[in-house]
Amino acid sequence: MSAGACAARRLFTPQLRRTGISRSSITSSSTSSRSSTGAKRVVKQPARGYCAGARVGHVRAAATVAPADGPASPASADGAGSKCFVTTPIYYVNDRPHIGHVYTSTVADVYARFQRSRGRDVFFLTGTDEHGLKVEQSAERRGVSPQELADENSATFRAVMTSMNISFDAFIRTTDGSHKTQVQRFVERLQEKDAVYLGRFEGWYDEGQEEYYTETKAKDLDYKSPISGKEMVRSSEENYYFKLSAFQAQLEALHADNPDFLTPPARRNEMVKRLKEGLNDVPISRTNFTWGVGMPGDENHVVYVWIDALLNYVTALGLGEEVG
Known about the structure:
The protein is α/β, with parallel strands linked by helices. It is 33% helix and 20% strand. It contains 10 helices and 13 strands. The strands form 4 sheets. Strands 3, 4, 5 and 6 form a 4-stranded parallel beta sheet that branches. It has a 4-stranded antiparallel beta sheet with strand order 8-7-9-10. A hairpin with a 2-residue loop joins strand 12 and strand 13. Helix 3 crosses helix 4 (146-163). The longest helix is centred in the middle third of the chain and has 19 residues, at 99-117. Mean pLDDT is 80; it is low at 1-77.
């Protein structure tokens, strides 16, 4: 893989700062992993200087580079000394791991090892996505609690990755107390900024993906899940919504002014095209299950699992600890 996969370098940190989030108090803690030789080693959670990467699609591991403070300075020609954040998707614990999970992690592992060989300070994150309706239903079928199912399958994921010598530096679980607390703080911050409101969704629901579709989009898909092919169901539900549409102009300007913010170009073009279609507000809570992070200020709602899971890339860095 080329160094061009470090897609969001230097740009994510200023975006965070504009939200009022600093990183001056991010602390370090230790965890265990394995080195490239297979020997067990003690590594650290990222402290200052890392910025959050993001996954694109199912298998791509993305990485970013940022200095501890102030504008980023160019890395040396070989990248030595610069910081690089590599992530996998976090894996859903409604079932046990399969070869696809190992493949995805191996792709990220190859990239992490390559960057380490260039002398870069790599932080390689993986973990498990443990909330949501499917986990709740799977646990019910097994006759165990959702937490018991999550504990069992998360341990299996970690054991498989360790046995395959995947050189991750940290393994996050979305049932971790720190992650849940930070998710709630981020949501509270959105509420304080009047970026969240209570509404009602009327449309079609893909139960397998736990995702809603408008009538128009569902019709385009022949009212079937684009992933499983199963029939969607008509649904109505009260949700809290994030005012994504309010950020349309800012996002368009971000990609126009920073053409290298998202790479490769095909993915950037896909995003720009999507923006031109217009953004809709996004539901960030659910009431049709209870296994999730509680919605701040409303015990009848839990944070939508995709929102909960997405935030792991910044909660792993402790950025939510500074919100407030």
